[in-house]
Design brief:
- By secondary structure, the protein is an alpha+beta fold.
- Helices cover about 40% and strands about 30% of the residues.
- The chain has one domain: TATA-Binding Protein, CATH 3.30.310.
- The longest helix is centred in the C-terminal third of the chain and has 19 residues.
């Protein structure tokens, strides 16, 4: 499980996060108890929720995924995190090291 800060000024609304997931992964996203879940490509399961103003992400890998599926899934996942947190990959990496 990883946690990400959400940039100040962005809504911490789970519906905003759901819209981004649907846009990026183009699959059905289920919601249960404030947790969003989906399955796509190299992700057997992706769970996302907001707690204390932070975005929490839990993933389970699909071990049968092809290299193409892995690359596509990673690209979509990075775009999701960029839009959901408001921080680029480079900015998120820098924050993780602090």
């Amino acid at each position: 499980m990883k946690e990400y800060r959400i940039k100040r000024g962005l809504s911490h609304d789970i519906e905003r996060i759901k819209e981004i997931l649907v846009r990026e992964f183009q699959v059905e996203v289920t919601e249960e108890g404030g947790t969003l879940s989906l399955s796509y490509g190299a992700l057997k399961e992706l769970k996302v929720w907001i707690e204390g103003g932070k975005l929490f992400v839990e993933t389970q890998a699909n071990l049968d995924a092809t290299d193409e599926m892995i690359l596509d899934t990673n690209r979509r996942f990075r775009r999701f995190l960029d839009d959901a947190t408001g921080y680029s990959t480079k900015e998120r990496r820098k924050m993780m090291m602090e």
